[in-house]
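Example record for the data management plan.
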Amino acid sequence: MQTKFKRHQLVRLLRDADPEYVEYHSEDEENPKEMPIKSGMLAKVNILLSNGKYHVEILDPEDNSKVIAYAPFDEDDLEEAE
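Corresponding structural encoding:
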C-alpha cells in the first residue's frame, strides 16, 4: 500500500477536525487547553490506522513543539508542510 505521508512528517490540516474524534492532550491536567482544531494548523503524522486514515498529533499554534491534541484525518485532508 502506497502512502503519501511518513511517520513523524510535518503536515498542515486542510479541514477542521471532527470534535467527536479529537483527543485533547495536556501536561497540565488541571488546566487542559481545549481549542478548536481548525484548518491550517500544523500536525505530525503519528500512525497509519487500519482504516487508511492518519492519526496525527496536532501542534500548539503558539509553540510548535507541544502537542495539544490527537485526531484522525484522511490523506486528502492533509498536505505536506514546508
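Summary line stored alongside the record: Strands lie at 10-13, 23-24, 42-48, 54-59, 67-73, 78-80.
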